[in-house]
């Protein structure tokens, strides 16, 4: 009851915007044709007439670089130009429309159990307010890692580039650098990074665990924003 009351009090102080699926055409394609399809369904592009762009390499901050591909057939194809994808243009337009009140931004991914923040494009430059983001992420992860779950590996904390890999044109880099949103994170859901391709195919039996872990981490950030931190 205490937890529920605290949750309600925190949520009542904030306004939320949810985008359950940013890439609907790609999502449908995963069910109809290729379960592990990653990209949008734009195109075809290039000599081999390949379809799709990696939506998380298409944002207009540090878009063209060594950590995305110019090959239309590659999994991490950046697109023919920044914001070439209608999904990314639409998201950017919406975020700009609410940017004056935007205090937190979360990009949920599968998989690997990482609670990460900008920058993705480089390990050499600290993002603005990196220490603030790191401190809150460490608190969130400590709560997640203390959850009673027999098969959970711990979450890690750090910048995307230092914790996972480098990436150009990433959504959280754009939101942090261009929109200056204080708490900007990507949450890589479970299972752990050693699950191989099966990590993208989470069994139904693990959904409640993933929900508990992610909601615990997200709520930690919600609390900080509600307190005006």
TrEMBL record:
GO function terms (MF aspect): metallocarboxypeptidase activity; zinc ion binding
Keyword presence, Protease: yes
Protein keywords: Carboxypeptidase, Hydrolase, Metal-binding, Metalloprotease, Protease, Signal, Zinc
SMART domains with a match to the protein in the record: Zn_pept
Alphabetized InterPro entries for the sequence: Peptidase_M14
Gene3D superfamilies on file: Zn peptidases
One cellular-component annotation, GO: extracellular space
Catalytic residues, chain numbering: 188
Domain of life: Eukaryota
Peptidase M14 domain residues: 1-225
UniProt-listed Pfam families: Peptidase_M14 (PF00246)
GO biological process, one term: proteolysis
Names of the cofactor(s): Zn(2+)
Family from the record: Belongs to the peptidase M14 family.
Listed name of the protein: Peptidase M14 carboxypeptidase A domain-containing protein
Organism: Acrobeloides nanus
Taxon lineage: Eukaryota, Metazoa, Ecdysozoa, Nematoda, Chromadorea
